[in-house]
Amino acid sequence: MSTSPAVDRIELMQTFLHIVEAGSLSAAALQMGATQPTVSRRLQALERSLGVRLLRRSTHAMKLTEDGERCYERARELIADWHAFEADLRGVGDEPEGTLRVVAPHALGQLLLVGPLAEYLRAYPRVSVEWLLNDRRPDFIAEGVDCAIQVGEMTDAMAVAVKVSEVPRVVVAAPSLLKGRSPPAHAAELAELPWLALRTFYRNEVLLTHRPTGEIARVPIRPRMSTDSLYALQSAARMGLGACLGSAWLLNEDIAAGRLVQLVPQWHVAPLPVYLTYPHARFQPARLRRFIEMMRLALADPTGQVWEARVA
Fold first, then answer.
1. What confidence category does residue 285 fall into, taking pLDDT thresholds of 50, 70 and 90?
2. Mean of the per-residue pLDDT values of the chain
3. Which of 60, 124, 134, 204 has minimal Cβ neighbours within 10 Å of its Cβ?
4. Phi and psi dihedrals of 197, rounded to 5?
5. What is the pTM of this model?
6. What is the C-alpha separation between 264 and 271, in angstroms, rounded?
7. At what angle do helices 25-32 and 36-50 cross, to 10 degrees?
């Protein structure tokens, strides 16, 4: 089998992906409507072309070699780029289709972003979305993630990060926590309170700036409870377990209803940046381009409609 034309190599890589994802040559052949000898010959041709062994096979098992693992990750990326390249040549007006795999933060993904997501799905009926909620940084290649919405500073140099918004934050506590105490007048007095920590963004210290003077206060705290959930932080604060620093979009209604009190309102806490991130690729499928465009518009204004949702 000649492997010099690019289309042959793409076919070989697609066959290799089918083998790995199906778990065996016979299962891959069934998925592809081919015979097992044909699939085996394509695998051997790819290995000869690359000059490496990709799979170790025994009677009962199949395992990727180290080279095979690297090849699998790169092949997935290359095939995705090829499909996006074909779509790009057909024109940017092509109807988006296929499955989009998106990671979003728990709180934003459960409450604020479902509205823009629904608009996207209504606009493009041939697209389906896997909406995965967690607050960690995704491994785009290993997890097959197309795009992520992330809060906080970006450190992944391997991904494109587009800043689309900011999340204002406030310091709050329940009235019961302040009972018998004078409300703190200076940021330094916050250290005297019991605290709750949102360990994703702060653990043992909070930094505040006095709006009128620009004075900066670095306040040490000793949290009674630490969590990675914004909702758990909100619930614990309502119960009077400690003061906390959290997203204004979630806590403002509690402040308005008297369930929480904003502390040291003249002291400003730096907002958290919101990024749309996705892996580097020369070509992007239409479904990803349209999703990025729609989410950028929805998140652009922190005072806009998308940020007005509230927890019941």
1. confident
2. 87
3. 60
4. -115, 135
5. 0.69
6. 16
7. 110
